[in-house]
Design goal:
By secondary structure, the chain is α/β, with parallel strands linked by helices. The protein has 2 domains: 33 residues; 177 residues, Rossmann fold (3-Layer(aba) Sandwich), CATH 3.40.50. The chain has a 7-stranded mixed sheet with strand order 3-2-1-4-5-7-6, with helices on both faces. Strand 1, helix 5 and strand 2 form a beta-alpha-beta unit. The longest helix is centred in the first third of the chain and has 33 residues. It is globular and about 45 Å long. The chain binds S-adenosylmethionine (SAM). The site of S-adenosylmethionine has 23 residues, from helix 3, helix 5 and strand 2.
């Protein structure tokens, strides 16, 4: 009995240890993806391009991931993937890596994305050139576009360039956009879009919302 209890205890100790080490492995992997130091350095170099000093928190990434809609053959496009935390959340939610195209303008970040997101299609380039960057078989076969580029910081005409680029590759689909604003980060009527706040979380710095913008019919 003692032996059984002891081995039971040992077993649960081992299980606890195992769970603990797999948790810390997960945390280690998460940290390798998010790479807050690289993010902070890029923010210091170009705050407007980054729009945030740290990567999106897991709670926000999970909320973005659960708003992704696609049929099995459709692709997901992510603009401004940064260090890949949103991409990782979408993969963890079941998106096959070969169905994900991420676009990132910063060379070091694109290299990092290739390293931490095996199988994902990483494109280093300017999202405003999306039509030229995406292969023809992807254009028009997109279920969801996630825009991580901080559009709120841009003048109207520049916002329009991004919106037009997304519309050109995913006609009628619209896009998901996350933001720290209390109200819509985009003047959606001026862009002839409808807007819906799909998610909000206080568990991000700063607290953030996920918006879905769709072209007006
Ligand atoms: C707010 S960060 C978001 C990063 C990541 N998605 C996250 O949630 O942590 C914005 C990202 O957009 C990228 N970016 C800015 N302008 C871009 C552009 N024109 N084309 C592609 N990426 C761009 C920046 O380099 C940066 O990685």
């Amino acid at each position: 009995m003692t032996h059984v209890m002891k081995s039971g205890t040992l077993q649960s100790d081992l299980e606890r240890k195992d769970a603990h080490s797999s948790e810390s492995t997960d945390r280690g992997k998460q940290r390798k993806v998010s790479n807050p130091l690289m993010f902070l350095r890029r923010w210091a170099a170009n705050p407007l391009q980054m729009g945030s000093i740290i990567p999106s928190a897991p709670a926000l990434c999970m909320r973005i991931a659960r708003q992704v809609r696609r049929t099995p053959d459709q692709f997901v496009i992510e603009l401004g993937a940064g260090t890949g935390v949103v991409s990782k959340a979408m993969l963890d939610a079941g998106l096959p890596p070969e169905k994900l195209y991420v676009v990132e303008i910063v060379h070091d970040m694109a290299e990092h994305l290739r390293d931490v997101l095996p199988g994902v299609n990483v494109i280093e380039g300017d999202a405003r050139e999306l039509v030229k960057l995406l292969p023809t078989h992807v254009r028009g076969n997109v279920g969801t576009v996630v825009c991580g580029v901080p559009l709120v910081l841009l003048p109207l005409a520049e916002q329009k360039r991004f919106i037009d680029a997304m519309e050109a590759v995913a006609p009628g689909v619209g896009f998901l956009h996350f933001s720290y604003c209390i109200t819509s980060p985009l003047p959606y009527q001026k862009h002839k879009l409808t807007a819906k706040r799909e998610e909000w979380t206080p568990r991000n710095f700063p607290p953030a919302s996920v918006w879905r913008y769709t072209p007006e019919k």
